[in-house]
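Here is one such tokenized protein:
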Amino acid sequence: MIPAAALLSRDFMTRASVLADAAENHEDAFINHGMQANFVEQLRAALEQIRAASDARNRHKVQQVLATVGLDAAEKSARKLMRVMDAVLTPILRKNPALLADWVASKRIARAGETLGSAWAAAALGRTCNHRSGQWARSPLSHLSTR
């Protein structure tokens, strides 16, 4: 059994192709010593399967990177839109403290590794997180919470 990393290396694929070429040149000798008549074809087919699997893996990696970039851009756009909405809604909602508290809790977008539940719980307890410093502080709306 050949390790997967070795199978994907160009060095292995090059050597295996050279081996197939050499075997093809001496096909009669191999067949006389018990190999199947189509063993070179089988070897080349196996090499092609390995190459195809490697190509598919590389395409998947590229797709994964592109998807991550797309998600990052979408998140950035959503956060920008949320800041605009916040600038419009907060002054209007100040007249209704219950709606304002709901908006403050609802507008929170969880960051990687953070659950929405923890963000909502923090908002319900009247706490906000300064993401630049990572420090939790009392929310300006903490007087509205019921503990």
Notes: The radius of gyration is 31 Å. Residues 109 and 116 are 7 Å apart (CA to CA). Residues 1-66 form one domain. The chain has six helices and two strands.
